[in-house]
Amino acid sequence: MTVTIKDIAKVAGVSYSTVSKALNDSPLVKEKTKTKVLAIAQEMGYEPNFAAQRLVSKKTKIIGLIWPTIERVVLAVLVTKISNEINKTPYSMILSVEPVDKSLETFKKYQVDGVILFEEDVGIQARNYPFPVLVYGVSSKSHSSYPVIDPNHEQAILQAVSYLYELGHRNIAYIGYISKADPRQLKKYEAFRDAIKKFNLDVPDESNIINTGGLDWHAGYSAVHEFLASPNRATAIVGGSYDISSGIIRGLKQHHIDIPKDISLISYDNIPQMATLEIPLTSVGVPIEDLAKKIVDTIIKLVEDENPVQHSTKLTPVLSERNSCIKRNTGTDFN
Amino acid sequence: MTVTIKDIAKVAGVSYSTVSKALNDSPLVKEKTKTKVLAIAQEMGYEPNFAAQRLVSKKTKIIGLIWPTIERVVLAVLVTKISNEINKTPYSMILSVEPVDKSLETFKKYQVDGVILFEEDVGIQARNYPFPVLVYGVSSKSHSSYPVIDPNHEQAILQAVSYLYELGHRNIAYIGYISKADPRQLKKYEAFRDAIKKFNLDVPDESNIINTGGLDWHAGYSAVHEFLASPNRATAIVGGSYDISSGIIRGLKQHHIDIPKDISLISYDNIPQMATLEIPLTSVGVPIEDLAKKIVDTIIKLVEDENPVQHSTKLTPVLSERNSCIKRNTGTDFN
DNA sequence: TTGTAGGCGTTATCAG
DNA sequence: CTGATAACGCCTACAA
Predict the structure, then answer these.
(1) Which of A63, A155, B312, B322 has its CA 20 to 30 A from that of B138?
(2) Chain B environment of A73 (Cβ under 8 Å)
(3) Total-model pTM
(4) CATH 3.40.50.10140 for the A153-286+319-330 domain, yes or no
(5) B6-41: pLDDT as tens digits
């Protein structure tokens, strides 16, 4: 037998509407009765009935998260953080690992208040759903119908290249997954091309750009062989993701190439796990906590605002130094 | 404006209680009106209001899943499968990545119908929660208060050792994480010891057992060095988990040791991903789909039964051959 | 400041 | 077979 406000009312000797008001901290009830009711509620172990609250409020206080491809570390970390953040609010999170369309249908059924979508595919049809949808990914025209939280890959990669340039590196390679189907990966690749062009470091045949063909550590590991086979080996590498870079470390290690003595390595993805790798990796990207916070703040704002501003946000990535890159003699020094 | 059964009632020219019955396929309404109502509901795009249904039914149709440590591939796969399975039922899943105690409190608030718990710690206090809790892990006295789905590590490991023995291997090593804090890992270790004892293969100093000290691929990778340093190197390895074994492959490869020509490798964890590793790995364990199905079936049964049988289940692991083990001359052959 | 009454959308129990 | 009607637990005008 769960205790309801009526039970409390009886014990407190007031009507249950008064209890309701007291519980909701309404200014319409005397401070004294309020504290009394609260005390009794506490004592009786009262828990509000969500279903009833929802029925009347028309809100579910549930945020849906769509994450169709669950098996990658970085996103797993992000999901964890998002869940943590949501749990700090009155909302809760419900996860769907089904395909996007199906997930949205399910969420519609469940009448969630809002949806966070980890965009993995390009073609997301912007149907009319009865809740705001926030996309985490690359902002562009293609899905302009939804607001987007964009971790600003291009700026992050530019920071990485710029950092290496400052350290004196003039031959810089990129090892990442170049996938037409994944805007996030594509963006990083393009950003790298732009960055080295900006610094006049680009090589005509793009031999300093290696496509891993995948996103797991093994893809990065394998790419190292290709990297080492290059006639003019770069002195520094930008790794496209956490998993890939962890593979790169392994690959270089196998060939007894020291990081950072022989080769500097900087990675995209700014997550704490970077520090606990075999070699703590200097990395660029929006710190994952900030990212999670921003995503949660935004979706809740979208949910609670009457006329939400449907604009996208580009975040500001930061560079976290962890000693996997060192200064390099550029040849223009005077000694 | 969402459409309710009352709206349908008006259009159909019947009372809304009839609509309710029709929608629930009650035998108390004529087939003709039933189909008519259903058609209208369909046409008007009716979606039942979960909050209202829950309010009256006292059920939320939500299963909570507690998964405090999200960053491991095998469990991620299992969660995905469980989610898929639950989505085939009228239930939905809500995931919590918070610590066990806090998760349970949250779920209590949300009045979930049941909880699945991936046991990571030994000391789970069996409080009285208003829903059934199903533990995935090792069945033992320590948490006898909850029913447990046990993937039967001991039998799986025995199958692996037995399989290698049949192939002629007499020197078999185990590489896994031996953690007192993780009953699942501990169980596998103990099972291996028991298995080789059974076949009289045990070495006194246990030098054929290597503790990776961790569960990620890198832990397995590092353990290979230790393995190779052993004076009497085994001819076959039992890997403790998917991640660990993927590291072992890598480590052996680095030393130009061929699988299975030089060394046979069999792994715990029977997931499809085993087949897509660099070297498709023969593995033992309950197939992950079966596991997911069993878990979901069981929790739903617990939820829906009036007097649920609180007993634990040990599943039957299977061995899936994928050509990472070969026959070995035992020395007792006659040629 | 407090209590009364109506309603949120459904299901279930009775009469008709 | 069908239709009132009363819950379910809570919120919120409106009355007192």
Answers:
(1) B322
(2) 71
(3) 0.81
(4) no
(5) 888 888 888 888 888 888 888 888 888 888 888 888
